[in-house]
Amino acid sequence: AQTVTQSQPEMSVQEAETVTLSCTYDTSESDYYLFWYKQPPSRQMILVIRQEAYKQQNATENRFSVNFQKAAKSFSLKISDSQLGDAAMYFCAYRSASTGNQFYFGTGTSLTVIP
Amino acid sequence: EAGVTQFPSHSVIEKGQTVTLRCDPISGHDNLYWYRRVMGKEIKFLLHFVKESKQDESGMPNNRFLAERTGGTYSTLKVQPAELEDSGVYFCASSHVRDRNEQYFGPGTRLTVT
User: Fold this and answer.
1) What is the DSSP string of A22-33?
2) Which of A21, A64, A91, B36 could form a disulfide with A37 if both were Cys (CB 3.0 to 4.6 A apart)?
3) What are the pLDDT digits (tens) for B26-40?
4) CA-CA distance, A10 to A23, in Å (whole number)?
């Protein structure tokens, strides 16, 4: 079974600075999708960014970008110019392109943004 | 467009009691998923509906959990009888049949079994 590991339970960043959240995964598949979800306190999870494994180019969404290293099975999220509204729990997730629809999630990283 | 809604937001019950969680997916989304996060651990898949049919229920922990989706609209997840280890946050998500990668999540139901 696929596993997703987030080794940083908590992270903090100064407002306007840059922070990188780590995620590694284990799979024997070659085609899959990777996601970062954000869950602000007491609110629902929303998709931040997603990456198709067959694409070599790293996905970018405004201040959010990923560093996708397929050989190393690493998928880190970089948040630039951090804002107070970025404070949330961040979950990394994996979905196979061929087997099933379920997402496999990591344990999450709680991000604090310091004013 | 309304998002995925879940009810209740929080439930506290005693061991041995029954609890029913409800999820209303986004209108038109045939795919509906249940996930659970036990404190400090990863979010784990429980099951997946396509309309009213169970497509994959490989993540259901045991037969104390029963999920239904009558009519292919809202879904319920019943826990009977509840045990202490059932405590956690139960998330529901839905997606359109055309984009299984775009799963929209509800805010979750926090279940506490005492």
Assistant:
1) --EEE-S-SSEE
2) A91
3) 999 999 999 999 988
4) 13
